[in-house]
Amino acid sequence: MRIAETELGEKPLFLAPMEDVTDPSFRYICKEFGADVMYTEFISSDGLIRDARKSLEKLRIYDYEQPIGIQIYGHLTEPMVEAAIMAQEAKPAFIDINFGCPVNKIANRGAGSGMMRFPDKMTEITQRVVNAVKLPVTVKTRLGWDESSKIIPELALRLQDTGIAALTIHGRTRSQLYKGEADWTLIGEIKNNPAIKIPIIGNGDITSARGAKEAFDRYGVDGIMIGRATYGRPWIFREIKHFLATGEDLPEPSVNEKVDLAKRHLLKSVEVKGERVGVLEMRRHLSSYFKGLPDFKELRMKLVTENDHNVVLELLEIIRDRYSNN
What we know:
The protein is of the alpha/beta class.
């Protein structure tokens, strides 16, 4: 599979952009486990052009993360164009437009998947961004606004006509949010439409290596994007690649491996964001890495309340000593 001039190999795996999750430290870990393409957390076009600190920080990418896309969202054409030009200066491989986020505060303003109600506006913004930047532009979207308006088959063709280099489709409508099962039928229909010439990346409910193989085999997608299943389990990329290559399941990482992983992740988070923020933003990951351990409540509470990263490192060693046989 290729996105413009970037060769990604056969059946590439994408890390989905997730707010407050896919920061540089988490991307570092996912790359280590085999993510082929990653995206930044999505960035508000309005925030970016106003020089909002949080938005500007999300433009920070590293050479080892390539190929990486910077994802922007918004509901107004001019700010989206300006934000795309600013994002281009960070030298990502792609600029990605988010037309998929279902969160109320975004969709109800007409941004994210809210744009599914305004396909003319969506294609206008996309066309303007494609024309404004020198990098390949990709789009992530959903099936439609609700069950009665699954416009993606026609919309995919219109988006292709704007000159985008790839399209990612999440197999739910905006109204579904993340509930129910993702419907890959339309994703497969679009991929197998002879008029579609750009790569189609499928997204939604890929939670296992077997599920990924089935999606590739049954629907013929060029790539798969994985989101929530990476949370607390970034090794899913390694599991999928191994299964695709061998047909065999990899065992769950041992507690020793998870402790080593958690320490690397924590140290990278502190390196990138400093002691206070780095430790604070690691809490959600630390508790997720060790989910399911017996009699873990007390240690978990310490992990998610401690502010000193050296103490957290000591707690991780306690976990190793106590649970190393798990």
